[in-house]
UniProtKB/TrEMBL annotation:
Keywords: Amino-acid biosynthesis, Cytoplasm, NADP, Oxidoreductase, Proline biosynthesis. GO terms for cellular component: cytoplasm. InterPro entries: Ald_DH/histidinol_DH (IPR016161), Ald_DH_C (IPR016163), Ald_DH_N (IPR016162), Aldehyde_DH_dom (IPR015590), G-glutamylP_reductase_CS (IPR020593), Glu-5-SA_DH (IPR012134), GPR_dom (IPR000965). The gene is proA. One of its GO terms (biological process) is L-proline biosynthetic process. This is Gamma-glutamyl phosphate reductase. It catalyses: L-glutamate 5-semialdehyde + phosphate + NADP(+) = L-glutamyl 5-phosphate + NADPH + H(+).
C-alpha cells in the first residue's frame, strides 16, 4: 500500500470516528491542545531553528524567512487562535431549514462535516495548527502536506497534536502529516478520490496553478493576492497615505498586503510626492509605474505588463493612473486576483459603486486591506481565503468546512 493510500485510509476511518464527538468534547480537547502547545513551545522552537538554518542556506529571502519563523509570541498567538476556535459556535448539526412537504414528509437540512480534508501549503507553520483546529471543530479529519522548508517544525507541531489526541482518547489520525515533500506524492494526494473529500491549496501562484491543473479531487482555491488600492479624486490624501503605508509595509509577505496602486489623475500630482516621502520613512518601496505617472516619482521604474498582475510579497508596488472611477473599476477587475480591493474616497456614490462592481471576495472603503483575515472577521482562525464563487468565499472559517445533509422522516409514504 502506498503512503498516500495508507494516509487516506486512516483519515477516512478517523473521519467516521470523529462523527461521534460532541461539541463539549471537541472544545475540551482544543483547550487541552492549547495548553500542550504552550508547554511544548521550547521543543517546537528548537525544531523551527533547524528549519530556519536550512532555509538560510537555501538563500530564502528575508520576507519568506519571516513567514517561517516561530517565536514565543507567535506560538502564543497560535494558542490563542486554538482557544478562539473552542469558543466559537459549533456549526455541526445546525438546522439550515426544516419543513413538511406535500407528501407529509418531514424534511430537515443540517450542517455536516465534509469528511476528509487534504491541505497542501507552503512554509507557514501557523497554518498547521489553524487548519487542524478548524477541521477538528467541524469533525473533519485532515491530511497536511507542508512546504519542505518547514518540515521539522510541522513534524513537531503534529507530534504535539497527536499526543494530545491520544491522551484524550481520540483517534490520532484526526491529523496526519505527509512528511515526504516530493512532488510525485503531492500529485498522488491530489488524485486520491477514494479518500479525499476536498483539497485546499494555500500558497503562491505556482502552487495554486499546479493544483488547479492536476487535482482530480474537489478543490477550494485559496487564491493569491494581487491587492489594489484605488485613490479616488475625492480621497482624503492624508488618510490615503496612511492606509497605503499600512497595507504595503506592515507585513508585505502576506496575501492581503497591497501590491497595486491605482490613482485618479486629479490627485496624482499631490498624492504621489506625499506618499513617496511618507512611505520611505517607514520602509523604502520600489514603485513600478506606468509611463504617464512615472515622472511624478523621485524614484520609480517603468512597469511592465506583467507587473500589473503580480503578487510581489515584497516591498514593491505597481502604479497606474486613471481618469475616472469607471476606468479604475475596469482596470482592477482586469488584473485582480479577486482577493481584496479598496477605494479611498469621500464620495458615498463612488464607494457604493466600487463595492458593487468590483469582483473580489472582500471590498473595502477607506480601510487597509490588511484586515482580510479570519480572526479579524470573527471567524476564529482561518484555513485560507477563498477567491472562488462557491459555497466558501473570502476567509474560510468553520462553516466553510461543512456540507449539508437532508434528513427525511415519513410514516409509510410511497411515491406514485
Amino acid at each position: 500500500m502506498s503512503i498516500i493510500k495508507q494516509l487516506g485510509h486512516q483519515a477516512k476511518e478517523a473521519s467516521f470516528d470523529l462523527l461521534s464527538l460532541s461539541t463539549l468534547e471537541k472544545n475540551n480537547f482544543l483547550l487541552q491542545l492549547a495548553d500542550d502547545l504552550l508547554s511544548n513551545s521550547d521543543v517546537i522552537m528548537q525544531e523551527n531553528e533547524k528549519d530556519m538554518a536550512q532555509a538560510k542556506n537555501h538563500d530564502i529571502s528575508k520576507i519568506m524567512l519571516d513567514r517561517l519563523l516561530l517565536t514565543k509570541e507567535r506560538i502564543r498567538a497560535i494558542v490563542e487562535g486554538v482557544k478562539k476556535v473552542a469558543d466559537l459556535e459549533d456549526p455541526i448539526g445546525q438546522v439550515i431549514k426544516g419543513y413538511t412537504n406535500l407528501d407529509g414528509l418531514k424534511i430537515v437540512q443540517k450542517r455536516v462535516p465534509l469528511g476528509v480534508i487534504a491541505m497542501i501549503f507552503e512554509s507557514r507553520p501557523n497554518v498547521t495548527i489553524d487548519a487542524f483546529s478548524l477541521a477538528f471543530k467541524t469533525n473533519n479529519a485532515i491530511i497536511l502536506r507542508g512546504g519542505k522548508d518547514a518540515l521539522n517544525t510541522n513534524k513537531a507541531l503534529v507530534k504535539v497534536v497527536r499526543a494530545s489526541l491520544k491522551s484524550s482518547g481520540i483517534t490520532e489520525d484526526a491529523i496526519q502529516l505527509l512528511e515526504d515533500p516530493s512532488h510525485a506524492l503531492a500529485e498522488e494526494l491530489m488524485s486520491a478520490t477514494d479518500y479525499i473529500d476536498v483539497l485546499i491549496p494555500r500558497g503562491g501562484a505556482k502552487l495554486i496553478q499546479t493544483v488547479k491543473e492536476k487535482a482530480k479531487v474537489p478543490v477550494i482555491e485559496t487564491g493569491i493576492g494581487n491587492v489594489h488600492i484605488y485613490i479616488d479624486e475625492t480621497a482624503d490624501l492624508d488618510m490615503a497615505t496612511q492606509i497605503v503605508i499600512n497595507a504595503k509595509t506592515q507585513r508585505p509577505s502576506v496575501c492581503n498586503a497591497a501590491e497595486s496602486l491605482v490613482i485618479h489623475e486629479a490627485v496624482a500630482e499631490r498624492f504621489i510626492p506625499q506618499l513617496e516621502e511618507a512611505i520611505s520613512a517607514v520602509h523604502p518601496v520600489a514603485f513600478r509605474a506606468d509611463p504617464v505617472v512615472i515622472n511624478l516619482f523621485k524614484e520609480a521604474t517603468l512597469a511592465s505588463q506583467e507587473d500589473y498582475g503580480m503578487e510581489y510579497l515584497d516591498y514593491i508596488m505597481s502604479v497606474k493612473m486613471v481618469s475616472s472611477l469607471d476606468q479604475a473599476i475596469s482596470w482592477i477587475n482586469t488584473y485582480s486576483s479577486h482577493h481584496s480591493e479598496a477605494i479611498i474616497t469621500q464620495s458615498l456614490a463612488a464607494a457604493e459603486r466600487f463595492q458593487e462592481q468590483i469582483d473580489a471576495a472582500a471590498v473595502y472603503v477607506n480601510a487597509s486591506t490588511r484586515f482580510t483575515d479570519g480572526f479579524v472577521f470573527g471567524l476564529g482562525a482561518e484555513i485560507g481565503i477563498s477567491t472562488q464563487k462557491i459555497h466558501a468565499r473570502g476567509p474560510m472559517g468553520l462553516e466553510a468546512l461543512t456540507s449539508s445533509k437532508f434528513y427525511i422522516n415519513g410514516n409509510g409514504q410511497i411515491r406514485n
